């Protein structure tokens, strides 16, 4: 069995220090040419010729990448950027972590593909994972490997239906659970539905309680939402047929980094117990230390029946899984779920070291310790900026919601997108999320050096522009502008024919 501290070690070196070991290019951000430089433009143009215009990231971040290290990226023109995107929460340990890399290199000499046959890589991974699962899943869950996050989530729903012998799940508005196959139905955005030919499924959609935009809950609690759910489940005229489960993100990811009221997740657990439903928690984005605990559900002290993990679990290689309680229903028959690439040995070898390093390096504890300070720093920076309505978050998952003004809170997607462009021109990658693409989100690797956090905040402050004019105290010291001489801010060349945002009617933001 793997040596496995059940909690992040508060006293570990990285947790105690604001200066973790240097993993990144030390001089970032460093711009030698306004991005995109000539070499980036050339590759972007060639990509546009060869690849479907459905790609989105080259529109958001029009640079061609040469290499990456830690929390930094270098483009083909030699520009070095601070990475606050981390592959959308895939790289919680940053790019090319030496321990993960060494594990993959060792595995390269053994076997790269083994179907579901046991390998040391597979068993080591499972033995590292099980003691690290939350609540009742710890040490007793069964694990089913999948490949992507969407794959994991739709499989979890099918497992819940199987265990309960009923079909149907309660899902939330603002949810993002993937776009392929069944997952697209669990996702709430209409733009994703429009491009899928596989719509269907037994679903009941309920508003996710958003304290900044309350719908059913006016008092900062989730009790209105809970009463509504109770009505759906117990009133014979609610129109809802039987369901097997509730599927929830402990913090809304793509939906805008929304933290639900503290009573929400415990109330869902109680509802599930009262109505004999299974609680499925989607930790694809929130898991693996992102929020300052290994699993975000642990903040609520709630034990899920099924847990989906993907993104960071493979350290950058494709790996996902469902962990479920096998004692809650009949066993899954052989072949319940299939897929050639599930549990790839290289990804498993990487994943084992991700799990271990998150603990051994103290990175989860660091996110717990540094995250609140960072939240406060962002709050101070935007204190006088009327276009940032709220700054919220947990650990290294921080959202800044852009609004036209603070009273009516009309979402302001263009402000978030222009901040993304301004930051890129200053050498920092920061992405957006939310239903209107109106939430700026910080999701840097948990391993990011403090110096890079400071420089990133400096660039952020600069990018806010004169209207924000935060107090001198709040602004980090240092040069006032990091933008490369002559940098164009808008429009941004993407290689796909011009400035963003682009295609009306097509999904524009894909995580
Ligand atoms: C919470 C959540 N679930 C599921 C998914 C889908 O994961 P994938 O893109 O690997 O299918 C995502 C992707 O962003 C996500 O954030």
Written description of the protein model:
The protein has helices spanning 13-16, 38-50, 57-60, 86-89, 98-108, 120-129, 149-164, 183-186, 190-194, 223-234, 264-274, 345-360, 363-382, 413-425, 450-464, and strands at 65-69, 72-75, 80-83, 142-146, 169-172, 203-206, 245-248, 278-282, 306-309, 320-324, 388-394, 397-402, 428-429, 431-433, 439-442. With 511 residues, it is α/β, with parallel strands linked by helices. It has 2 domains: 13-96 and 363-464, Alpha-Beta Complex (Aspartate Aminotransferase, domain 1); 110-359, 3-Layer(aba) Sandwich (Aspartate Aminotransferase, domain 2). The longest helix is centred in the C-terminal third of the chain and has 20 residues, at 363-382. Strands 4-10-9-8-7-5-6 form a 7-stranded mixed sheet, with helices on both faces. Strands 1-2-3-13 form a 4-stranded mixed sheet. The structure holds pyridoxal-5'-phosphate (PLP). Pyridoxal-5'-phosphate (PLP) binds at residues 88, 148-150, 153, 176-178, 249, 253-254, 282, 284-285, 310, 511. The site of pyridoxal-5'-phosphate (PLP) has 16 residues, from helix 7.
Say how many strands there are: 15
The arrangement of helices and strands along the chain is: HHHEEEHHHEHEHHEHEHEEEHHEEHEEEH
Named at the architecture level, the CATH assignment of the largest domain is 3-Layer(aba) Sandwich
Q: What would the CATH topology of the largest domain be?
A: Aspartate Aminotransferase, domain 2
The level 1 CATH classification of the largest domain is: Alpha Beta
CATH superfamily of the largest domain: Type I PLP-dependent aspartate aminotransferase-like (Major domain)
Biggest beta-sheet profile = 7 strands, mixed
Strand % is 5-15%
Structural class: alpha/beta
Return the average pLDDT rounded to an integer.
90
Output the radius of gyration. Answer: 22 Å
- Helix count equals 15
**What separation lies between the terminal Cα atoms?**
35 Å
Instruction: Describe the strand arrangement of the main beta sheet, using strand numbers.
Output: 4-10-9-8-7-5-6
Outline the low-pLDDT stretches. 6-13, 15-19, 469-482, 484-491, 498-511
**Small-molecule binders:** pyridoxal-5'-phosphate
- Helix proportion range: 25-40%
Number of domains: 2
Name the shape in a single word.
globular
